[in-house]
Specification:
mainly beta, elongated
Length: 90
Amino acid sequence: MVPPAITGTGSEIFRAGEAVQIKGLYRVIHYAHRLPHETAILALKKFPHCNQCGDRVRFELVRSVGELLKDYNFQPDDTEAAENGDLLTD
């Protein structure tokens, strides 16, 4: 079974340069130059700085996302993986 997604409570705000601990969909809140928007942060180790408002940008978790290949419905069986060259061997 797939664990439920974590949804943001709206109370935790992350700053540029802080470690990204949860992969997910984030609301990006800029300082005085752009309306908030949403973006997926999946591979970054730290929240990025904005080219315009620098370290004043903030990030709010909207929803966490799982990794598709960790979902049991999408894990290839050994036969399929071997045919596709996706199976790791010693």
